[in-house]
Specification:
Elements: E1 3-9, H1 13-28, E2 34-41, H2 45-55, E3 59-61, H3 64-69, E4 75-78, H4 85-94, E5 98-101, H5 109-122, E6 126-128, H6 136-146, E7 153-161, H7 178-181, H8 185-200, E8 204-212, E9 217-219, E10 226-228, E11 234-241, E12 246-252, E13 261-268, E14 272-276, E15 282-286, E16 298-301, H9 309-312, H10 322-339, H11 347-366, H12 390-394
Parallel strand pairs: 1-2, 1-4, 2-3, 4-5, 5-6, 7-12
Antiparallel strand pairs: 7-13, 8-11, 9-10, 11-12, 13-14, 14-15, 15-16
């Protein structure tokens, strides 16, 4: 399998990030099939044509469904607003395509679960855009924890703070509506943070959430009237992991001055570690007092000895960027397809994140601890009976 033909749906900022990865991955990771930009789809035909020419795609269309059905397409890559993810992914799965979908996987856990079942029954590979877990420094943090180098974990704290809606006059957009975004800061930012909590520590047994909408109305883009904001600006969450470890999450899209304030810290019995995405090529580790009077956190700089970094750069300290994480994420999907092996951030990982978000919202409504409920759909054997179509499984 030397090449894989891709259809990319969406030409926004994430669509461009995925297009950059499609053109870069074979150079950085020559041992995986080279992706080919076959079709670029966007609701605006002229924009689709313009971006297809700029991004190296063979064809452009304003019909996403035809892109999913095209016989020459082998992988469908979805970079659209949240409410479109489910139907696009189901159409691609029904056509036998592998699917790469930006987060969140769906508006809620039910949508995500329908995609897990459909993909299982169709036997296709899937991936969700949880790119922060691809960072070599995040992977180093996990390896340190799994090796027990810091002793027994004591507490996890995660935070994701951005300010893209901190201006009260910022116009109402699709991220402010339940019908197009689902939850607010939780789906947009919290999905990344919850995935990192799963990745680093493990499953969550229960959550206690408090959600706040700071700016309850926003002006329409034309400024003619104001609309009610339908989801949360801030989420504050207490956690209890399946291991018994306690933790907290704080998520905000109105955090004035913060641009990509994704961070986590974990304390343990013999040490601790800290990570900040705004300094994404560093990991701070504390290994306990040694009696020298010089105890403190040590900063580790990313270098070629850390997972995947060396494929981009042979010198430490030069650093990777966010688009490089997308290249690693795409490599993981391509390797999974080529070698028929599990992909870590697959649709089931996406569903588990959505189940936690559902539980946080329920907890806020009921003001009580709430467990992310397993979905019966996920208990169906992966092989099935061969009679149910992917569309029937997804409830279309």
């Amino acid at each position: 399998m030397a090449e894989l033909n891709f259809a990319l749906i969406g030409t926004g900022s994430m669509g461009k990030a995925h297009a950059i990865a499609l053109r870069s991955v074979a150079t950085v990771f020559p041992d995986v099939p080279a992706p080919v930009g076959e079709i670029l789809a966007d609701v605006d035909r002229s924009r689709a044509e313009q971006c297809a020419a700029a991004w190296g795609f063979r064809h452009a269309t304003d019909d996403w469904h035809s892109a999913c059905l095209a016989p020459e397409v082998e992988v469908v890559d979805i970079c659209t607003p949240n409410h479109l993810h489910r139907n696009m992914a189901l159409a691609a799965i029904a056509a036998g395509k592998h699917v790469y979908c930006e987060k969140p996987l769906g508006l809620d856990g039910a949508e995500a679960a329908s995609l897990v079942l459909a993909a299982r029954e169709a036997g296709v590979k899937t991936a969700v855009g949880f790119n922060y877990a691809c960072n070599p420094m995040v992977r180093l943090a996990r390896s340190i924890l799994q090796a027990g180098e810091l002793g027994e974990p004591v507490n996890f704290r995660g935070s994701y703070q951005e300010d893209y809606l901190s201006d009260p006059q910022a116009p109402f957009g699709w991220r402010c509506a339940r019908s197009t975004a689902g939850s607010g800061a939780l789906n947009d930012l919290g999905s990344h943070l919850i995935h990192l909590a799963h990745f680093l520590v493990g499953g969550l047994e229960r959550v206690y959430g408090s959600l706040t909408t700071v700016y309850r109305q926003r002006p329409n883009p034309n400024g003619s009237e104001w609309r009610a904001v339908e989801n949360e600006d801030i989420a504050q969450v207490l956690l209890r992991f399946e291991s018994g470890l306690p933790g907290t999450l704080e998520i905000s899209r109105v955090a004035t001055g913060r641009k990509c304030g994704l961070s986590f810290s974990l304390t343990a019995s013999r040490g601790a570690l800290e990570f900040d995405q705004e300094r994404m090529n560093e990991l701070r580790v504390y290994r306990g007092a040694d009696g020298s009077g010089q105890a403190g956190y040590r900063t580790i700089l990313a270098g070629p000895e850390h997972a995947d970094y060396g494929n981009f750069c042979l010198a430490p300290g030069h650093g990777l960027g966010i688009n490089d994480l997308k290249v690693i994420e795409l490599r993981n999907l391509l390797a999974g397809i080529a070698h028929d092996r599990a992909i870590e951030a697959d649709f089931e990982a996406g569903w588990r994140v959505q189940a936690v978000i559902d539980a946080i919202e329920e907890s806020d409504r009921n003001r009580c601890w709430t467990s992310p409920a397993p979905t019966p759909l996920l208990q169906v054997p992966a092989t099935g009976d061969g009679q149910k179509t992917a569309n029937q499984a997804g409830g279309q």
